[in-house]
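Hi team,

As requested, here is the filled-out complex form for the flavin-adenine dinucleotide run. I kept the field names the same as last time so the parser does not choke. Let me know if anything looks off before we queue the next batch.

— J.
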Amino acid sequence: MSEGSVRIGELLRQGGRSFSFEFFPPKDEAGEEVLWRSISELEPLRPTFVSVTYGAGGTTRDRTLAITARIAQETSMLPMAHLTCVGHTTDELARILGALAGSGVRNVLALRGDPPGGPGTDWVSTEGGIEYASDLVALIREVSDLSVGVAAFPEGHRDSPTLENDTAILKAKHDAGAEFAVTEMVLRASDYLGLVERAGAVGVDFPIVPGIMPILNFSSMAKMVELSGREIPAEVLARLEPLQDDPAAVRAEGIAIATELCDELLEQGAPGLHFYTLNRSKATREIYSALSVHA
Ligand SMILES: Cc1cc2nc3c(=O)[nH]c(=O)nc-3n(C[C@H](O)[C@H](O)[C@H](O)COP(=O)(O)OP(=O)(O)OC[C@H]3O[C@@H](n4cnc5c(N)ncnc54)[C@H](O)[C@@H]3O)c2cc1C
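And here is what came back:
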């Protein structure tokens, strides 16, 4: 993939395969060390971009800004900052966008964010704020020149009443000016392909990058189920459950399952892969090096 552009929307449209890594702002100094070690271990893979999440309720605003700015200024990698509507007025959001642009960040993932009570609880509006990601996309287009991505959901967002409704929401984000989407963790290639097909049918023609997170242990799997409100596919459980007394075997099988999924997604035409690294590099590097298809 060409490195000429700094806009992720343009890079993805050039048609090469994109590999990207997602990090979250750590809570303490030990976590910072782990994060920067992982970043330096993943940099040699020459990702198309890396992204930094925005903590629930805007709690990591300063750290998200600081980490994306440092990646932009001190590494060869192209950073994307996540931004959510939770707890912010429109003026605050505009100021944050100005700060991002001022620190050399050129890409943002526009999200509504989860309700402060956690996924699945009622959404809480902020006076003078924004209700939906599509409105945030419109604001970003209005006040900045940042390249904007959005979230997409292979099985539909947990609060969307139907897949049709979910597709209409993605279309609204597309029409507001989003240039690409990154998905929630894909559990089956067919879910991702269904999303791309539904989106294409309503005129959403931007690149949709599948999100990848290997199952490395049973507790992270349970957390994923709780947060996204989805079920682990029976065929995945059938491979992992017999190994549950052997953590190393669970991890190895989880990596194998994720690698097979990545290969299938790329073979079926996915424009790239977005890895949820959880600030660790080892699993991502293992999957990356085991892939049949590279950039
Ligand atoms: C790749 C990715 C990265 C993420 N990063 C973060 C992060 O950094 N920080 C964080 O806090 N969360 C993050 N999330 C989680 C995300 O914020 C939640 O899933 C959130 O609940 C939905 O965000 P959204 O941007 O899709 O919202 P929206 O597209 O606004 O949708 C939210 C809900 O509102 C409904 N809706 C949307 N528009 C309308 C409308 N016009 N009328 C009626 N209903 C509507 C939708 O159906 C959906 O149920 C991420 C998710 C993904 C997939």
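Two things worth flagging: Residues 22 and 276 are 5 Å apart (CA to CA). The beta strands are 18-23, 49-52, 79-84, 107-111, 147-152, 180-185, 208-212, 272-276.

Thanks,
J.
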